[in-house]
Amino acid sequence: MNIIWNADKYAKDFSFVHQYGNGVLELIDTDNAKTAIDLGCGNGVLSGKLRDMGLDVIGIDSSPEQLAIARRDFPDINFIEADAISFEVNKPVDVIFSNAVFHWIDKDKQSNMLHSIHASLVKGGQLVFEMGGYGNNMLIHRELSKAFNRRGLKYRIPFYFPTIGEYAAMIEKEGMLVTYAILFDRPTALNGDEGMNDWIRMFIRTPFKDVDKETENEIINETAENLRNDLFKNGTWYSDYVRLRMKAIKP
Ligand code: BEZ
């Protein structure tokens, strides 16, 4: 996951990402936990919530920009720069929590990440996470793909959005036992008249890496216009999110 984040804009305009993380936190059994990792902690807001739940938390992220904000806002929390697919900790923890991160990891690297997670949990430890699930942002990716194709360009969805069955099998292959899983739609309001354009600019990076700025702007404007019927309601843009929320235990 090699992304240079505009961490201030992310915190200001996309704060819903961590606000929705609250529902995931509720899956943690805090009676049986003292220590936690927030994997892909970003700006640390959810690490702060884990700490407020009484957990001794380590935040891990690969983005120095996001970690700078996390360290500024939560100076009492230990934040470490590391990649989710290869992180290691000195001492296994009771809980590994993650929100809106796993879909950034390529499918063929997921088993490496789950292996690191398994190695970093104590026996009986909990993995609790939410990620984009099967069908996530289907309308947005469909329109982007059409806009690329109209220009003779190829579009590949730069994320991994698995089904429950597919991801449960991967987790179990790495030696953990799935105890909870749900896949659900969560249309999410975006900020401002340019909400869809801003969302695409913030999150869809790799497909545009060989596209000139003018064509990129054209594609983004055209995609937003073509999504208006489906995703602009009563003056507000929505992202067609589908969430995969799961809990697993290391037996
Ligand atoms: C998500 O949280 O589902 C997501 C966010 C940004 C890009 C892709 C997916």
UniProtKB/TrEMBL annotation:
Any one GO biological process: methylation
Record flagged with keyword Transferase: yes
Domain Methyltransferase: 37-125
Any Pfam family hit: Methyltransf_25
Keywords of this entry: Methyltransferase, Transferase
Protein name: Methyltransferase domain-containing protein
A molecular-function term among this protein's GO annotations: methyltransferase activity
PANTHER family per UniProt: TRANS-ACONITATE 2-METHYLTRANSFERASE-RELATED
